[in-house]
Amino acid sequence: MATHFVIDGLKAEIEGKEILKGINLEIKGGEIHAIMGPNGTGKSTLASALMGHPKYEVTEGSATIDGEDLLEMSVDERARAGLFLAMQYPSEIPGVTNSDFLRSAINARREEGSEISLIKFIRQMEKKMKDLEMNPEFAHRYLNEGFSGGEKKRNEILQMAMLEPKIVVLDEIDSGLDIDALKIVSNGVNAMRSEDRGFLIITHYQRLLNYITPDFVHVMMQGRIVKSGGPELAERLENEGYDWVKEELGIVDETVGQA
């Protein structure tokens, strides 16, 4: 059965201020959806709320993967259910190597007694790192510690490739990447596209979508998705900005105070 991810009427707030004001979105396996919008419209809040960041309180609505209620799950349960978030600013974890982190994460999603063997894990990791043009030494470095911005982003894609999630949320994965790194990261995403996996890409810029062609593009303003279309919508936004959307929909102030 193909993956099916549904967000229905999702509202969320931080410190009593409502940021998400009713998000509706459906992503099926094999689909790539992109969310674009000005700063402060709630895009990154959506990603954090879906993953269960404690700073954000979901006040209404639902989010399900294949019928399972994400909002009733803890953060680690959401990850085991198949949700993956590649963050704009990945955290550094001193004392935990890349390889130890990834093997533990893979085994956490497996039944007891069916853990991945060390040899199989090493072979898979070496292949994925080669595909991403990552130095093999990064496997033994502490997670993201001392990594450049581009290295952190490649590392996020490595984690995605190893964990093989059902739904991938990429929160401004293109931020801080030069053109070569952008191509490598995009190739990593494209290689993972399948009927068993859906993508939600949050970005400000068309340039990422030049390498990862979305099936659907959504414009987010005032904590809501206000317009949807195909790849041509992203191109128009790149060329003309967001003013025409605001004029078309009669939006005066597009910000809600969060990214």
From TrEMBL:
SMART domains: AAA. The keyword ATP-binding applies. Residues 5-247 form the ABC transporter domain. Keywords: ATP-binding, Nucleotide-binding. The keyword ATP-binding applies. InterPro entries: AAA+_ATPase, ABC_transporter-like_ATP-bd, ABC_transporter-like_CS, FeS-cluster_ATPase_SufC, P-loop_NTPase. Belongs to the ABC transporter superfamily. Ycf16 family. PANTHER family: ABC TRANSPORTER I FAMILY MEMBER 6, CHLOROPLASTIC (PTHR43204:SF1). This is Vegetative protein 296. The lineage of its organism: Bacteria, Bacillati, Bacillota, Bacilli, Bacillales.
